[in-house]
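Give me structure tokens for this 292-residue protein.
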Amino acid sequence: MSDRMKILIAYDGSGCADAALDDLRWAGLPEEVECKVLSVIETWLPPPSGLEVVQHIDREQEFLTLAARAAMRVTKARPAWQVNAEVGIGSPASVILEKADEWKSDLIVLGAHGRSALGRFVFGSVSQKVLHEAKGSVRVARAHADEPARPVRLLIGFDGSQGAKEAVRAATARRWPVGCEIRLVYAAWPNLDLGSQPMVGKIADWIAEEDLKIKRWIDAEVSDLNAAGLRTQAVIRAEEPKQLLMSEAETWKADGIFVGARGLSRFERLRLGSVSSAVAARAHCSVEVVRG
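Here you go.
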């Protein structure tokens, strides 16, 4: 049984899909990879019949050629990978999810935007559906300026949840070039004006304990990662979580953001719908949403 990482790349020939292929070299991916490039013929109609069959076959060949060209680009960049091209038919998001489930992929890679038979398919219609419903990790890839003189920079959202810890493990297990820099980002609780409610003291104590506990976890993570040769520091500010991640990524010119698929709710801390998907939709760089 192969222990290669399985990566499914959704490709539609758009500029954003091409950017997702280029982004692979910034993702720290291993040499042992089994990769499928999938192009989807978008259709909402029943299978063709009669004279439509020939036209349908031509279209299928066109999309297979599209996927094959993308697969050749991947192979040229990563010659050790096992890369195949495949065509699907149907709703793009549904086909991507079905193929990923069927193949048991570890990671789905797709551009932040793309195009469909109806024009452009925006983040909310395809990428968002894949992001929310995939059983494995999803990388929403974006183009970025190539600055070979500086090290790769990664942000990891951390809130103390199991999902956040999985994001740390996934990011730091990758094969990064020497000098890679990592920042663990934690949005601490803001100073709340709780008035003179009877429970104020208990709530304030609980918030203080939670922040202290998570800061201790962060200190331990930073220490371990530095000991492993990864240059790591923490960023802790009392700010809205998704805004902190996006502003820090833009200011620092991060190459990628890793976040857990499920964090803690706002009374426990973060949730997918409020943080991970928002960051994936709006960040200027690639975002990987990790599922363990």
